[in-house]
Amino acid sequence: MSEEQHKKAEIGILQDREEKKEQETKIVEDKEEQEEKTIKDIEEKKEEFDRKEYYKKKNSETVICPFNKEHIIKKRRYLRHIKGCPNNPTRKATYGKKYIIENINRPIIKESITKEVEIKRLLPFLEDKFIEKGIDNNRKGSVFIRCECNKMKLSQFGEEEIEILKERVKIIYEYMEKKYIDIFKGIRNEKGKEGEEESVEEKEIENIEMPEGWEFQSEKHSKQCISILKHLIDKEIIINSGDKKQNIVESGAGSGMLSAYYSILPHSNDTRIYLIDRMTGLRKKYDRFSKRTGDQITRIAADLSDIDINELINETEIDDKIQTQENSTIIIGKHLCGSATDMALRMGISLTKTKRLRGIGIALCCHFKGDGHDDCTIDFFNGLGVRIAELTLIHRMAAWGVSLNDCNDKSKDGDNDKKVIGQMCRTILNVARVIWLKNQKFIGDAGLVKYCKKTSSLENVLLWAKSKYD
Q: CA torsion 130→131→133→136, rounded to 10°?
């Protein structure tokens, strides 16, 4: 092989080596690139996974609203919710007002059950074990009831316990019927004795001119409102003549229908109407009809338990044209449910401190929604041997008088018995309220009257009271 050929061979070998080396380098680079890509993909997937986990965790964290335990919200939306929460007191029109004092119309409970030997009671107190049977810890209940009575259910008791409760109600009813004959006269045959005529005083006012645009709820509601007002006018609780200025406070006003009926009745005196109800956003309100007649309207969205009525009137009258005097404020209400009645009564009695109260007229309703802890009659029933928890059970049994009202001859004897017991419970609660009113310093007289027939309303009893200042 010549020298030239030898050089060419060496060059070829070197070229092959270079090509091989380049190929190996490329393979290594491709491998490294692939590894880098794989690592990058893994990191991206991990980052995506971490992001999902982060948001999943973030969205799963919840907190409870401090203003309403029913509101469970995401933690990240907490501040936003607080600002817009409908239960936030700072969003209410009454926030910071002097006349809002929490639970001012609720009682300070001092239940005495330790003086069994010293005080002779009508009945012995029920034992704690008996009462505890009626508590259902799984019951949600109402946000407005603040004690264990919230969880009290008759269905928790057996037949034996129910019979004991029924017998105690009968004893209490018979005792009260004999002792307070004058109060029972107004609601004769309330427990439905056969052959005895029902005592009803349904009153009417003739020639009422209905304003343009008036929306009738129904004929029966019209008759009820007019009968209630006529009773209060006849008893000189509400004034509709002369020039005496007055305040009418409608408790649990809703649409304000009852006070609107007063406004359309002929009256020559100046009147300011206070409409108090904790509900807001009510539709078809009757305020405009009262305003057309010249009556002044003040609507307050607040709970009855928190209203200092004297302070409210003081605040309203500072720059008001109507300056009311003593004996000039009336508390009214139509179908005021459960314990709201007791709150309205306490609110009325607080007016006697300033001698503003003229009278009270409340159409009673829904006794079964009451709570023994809020009753103004706690001391009275305590004296009979009835504790607060049993008083709540009496409220619950009152439902039998309404829900079983359609019992006929084919109904079970137990149902008919429950119906009578339910009506007894309602009467016991109503009469006890009248007794409480009569024991107040500046109440001259109080009573009960049936203002309409049962065909118009099963809850047809009007509680009235009139002040008397020496």
A: 180
pLDDT in tens, 244-256: 889 999 999 888 8
CA distance between the termini of the chain: 151
Cα–Cα dist 238/232, whole Å: 6
Superfamily per CATH, domain 163-467: Vaccinia Virus protein VP39 (3.40.50.150)
Tell me how far apart the alpha carbons of residues 232 and 330 are, in angstroms, rounded to a whole number. 10
In the prediction, which pLDDT does 319 show?
Answer: 67
Structure token pair of residue 240 = 């509709």
- What is the DSSP annotation of 441-463? TTEEEEEEEE-S-TTT-S--EEE
Q: Are 348 and 331 in contact (CB under 8 A)?
A: yes
Under DSSP, is residue 383 helix (H, G, I), strand (E, B) or coil? Answer: helix
Instruction: For the beta carbon of residue 126, count every other beta carbon within 10 angstroms.
Output: 18
Determine how β-strand 357-365 pairs with β-strand 461-467: antiparallel
pTM: 0.80
Closest CA to 243 of 324, 360, 361: 324
Residues β-bridged to residue 273: 248, 297
The backbone torsions φ and ψ at residue 450, rounded to the nearest 5 degrees and listed phi first, read -85, 115
